[in-house]
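Hey, weird one. I pasted the TspO/MBR-related protein sequence into the form twice and got a warning about non-standard characters only the second time. First submission, copied straight from the form history:
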Amino acid sequence: FKSLHFPPGRPPSVIFPFVWTSLYVAMGYASYIAVHTYDDSYLTESESQVSSGIALHYAQLALNVLWTPLFFVRKQTKLALVDCTLLTLTTAWMTKILHVPTRGKSTWLLLPYCAWLSYATYLNAGVVYLNEG
């Protein structure tokens, strides 16, 4: 890991625990809002949207869990990039789907996560690009 070249804009390692803790708290609260919206849903369309959003929540969690061992343990930076890209897209889709049924409440909690994942995808892509060869 220490021998890898990183693209410009890499943050100091010390901020990662703080960033991820706040993102996980926000994700947890967004899922809480989604579940309560589902429980209070009387319209089939709204119930279906929230149900899809909750399924995407679990999918993005699984992709999130996979990234660390792919990147750090197996040193599969290209596969980690595929995972990170899918994670970013899944999270963006989840955020979009949950926006209307939760009246935007989940969106404000998930947007920082979407932004961070986009940034993480850039960093991962930079690692792949700069270390190929």
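That's the output from the first submission. The warning seems to come from a hidden character in my clipboard, not from the data itself. Helices lie at 16-39, 44-73, 77-99, 105-131.
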